[in-house]
Amino acid sequence: MPVTDVQPDIDNLTLTIIADFAAPVERIWQVYADPRQLEKVWGPPTYPATVVEHDLTPGGRVTYVMTGPEGDKHAGYWLVTAVDEPTGFAFDDGFADEDFKPLSDLPVSRNTYRFDAHDGGTRATYVSTYETAEGLQQVLDMGVVEGATLSINQIDSLVA
């Protein structure tokens, strides 16, 4: 399994996930740069994503809908803040309604995804930072650790 470490840190308002892949940095970058590949790994297997809009450039926006096993739909968005192809990018990630308008009662996280060459493959470091401890706790209670781990672990078979 690619995910090797998960560290929620309430005091620092962060959730950090480390994953190691047997693929070069450029290949891991491509997973996020290509909306059709992103759909295969954004969301756990039982909640596949459909990427609606994909502009992975600073100031760009990515929108998606995850569909649950009962047909329930959950929309979200990224507001891309920085891109350093192929070694990473940063974005704000939030929950949205069906028109992709932000849901103000759910937290927004600031995310930094970094891809570094490591042991002949890639070490990915995913850091999500929340504005409040309550916001971080809310997503932890919603199962973000389990969901993110299942999602990230799908990358191995995609890049094999």
TrEMBL record:
Q: What InterPro entries does the record tag this protein with? A: ASHA1/2-like_C, START-like_dom_sf
Which Pfam families does this one have?
Answer: AHSA1
User: What protein does this entry describe?
Assistant: SRPBCC domain-containing protein
- Where in the numbering of this chain does the Activator of Hsp90 ATPase homologue 1/2-like C-terminal domain appear? 22-159
SUPFAM superfamilies per record: Bet v1-like
Signal peptide location = none
Tell me the protein family, please. Answer: Belongs to the AHA1 family.
